């Protein structure tokens, strides 16, 4: 009976869509043409700004830092590491127990007198079935933890999106770019610290 490989890797899903390339409209729709005779193209209503006249004021946000370095992100990572360690330790304990039983069975097979072939086959099959059950239970538990992780990350993303929008309004930004998509940008464009401060205040922790 072979020992199953049990690598646990942190979920790589990143909720980048919550932050990527966010544009904030500053003007309402232009008035529609109502005249029956041909007329020039509609002009923006008084107090509105045509889309091609909206100034581009850029902000840059490091979404990876928001997800991992925020207070809620650090809290979530700590809980996740503890949960995965407990899950792995429990599986290792069960596998070690099965391995010890398998070794005892092999010793009985070569003992004097040896265990009957039918008894050996029955006990070996029982150990193999138990091993399969352990692996299936492990996979089911891991899937459940993954679902909880995704839900907690969604909570962080929602709170971070609100913080990002508040910073954008305060600064008058019309476009926010993900830091990963910007090879270079002036430091004043970086709004990560401002968003992080608001996020930490609004969501200091999140439960896994």
From TrEMBL:
The superkingdom listed in its UniProt entry is Bacteria
The record's InterPro entries line, in alphabetical order, gives:
Chaperone_Skp, Skp_dom_sf
Q: Which Gene3D superfamilies match?
A: Skp domain (3.30.910.20)
Q: Looking at the keywords, is Lipid metabolism present? A: no
Q: Which residues form the signal peptide?
A: 1-32
Q: Which UniProt keywords apply?
A: Signal
Keyword tRNA processing assigned to the entry: answer is no
Q: Which family does it belong to?
A: Belongs to the Skp family.
Q: What is this protein called?
A: OmpH family outer membrane protein
Q: Which organism is it from?
A: Dongia sedimenti
């Amino acid at each position: 009976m072979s020992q199953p490989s049990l690598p646990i890797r942190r979920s790589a899903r990143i909720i980048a869509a919550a932050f990527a390339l966010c544009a904030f409209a500053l003007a309402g729709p232009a008035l529609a043409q109502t005249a029956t005779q041909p007329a020039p193209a509609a002009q923006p209503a008084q107090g509105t700004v045509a889309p091609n006249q909206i100034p581009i004021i850029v902000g840059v946000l490091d979404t990876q830092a928001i997800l991992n370095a925020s207070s809620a992100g650090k809290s979530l990572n700590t809980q996740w590491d503890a949960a995965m360690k407990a899950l792995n330790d429990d599986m290792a304990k069960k596998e070690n127990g099965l391995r010890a039983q398998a070794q005892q069975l092999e010793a009985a097979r070569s003992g004097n007198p040896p265990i009957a072939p039918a008894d050996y086959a029955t006990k070996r099959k029982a150990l193999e079935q138990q091993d399969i059950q352990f692996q299936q239970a492990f996979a089911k538990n891991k899937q459940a933890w993954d679902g909880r992780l995704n839900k907690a990350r969604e909570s962080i993303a929602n709170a971070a999106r609100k913080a990002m929008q508040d910073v954008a309004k305060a600064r008058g930004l019309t476009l926010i770019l993900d830091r990963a998509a910007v090879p270079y940008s002036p430091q004043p464009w970086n709004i990560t610290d401002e968003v992080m401060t608001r996020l930490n205040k609004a969501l200091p922790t999140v439960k896994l």
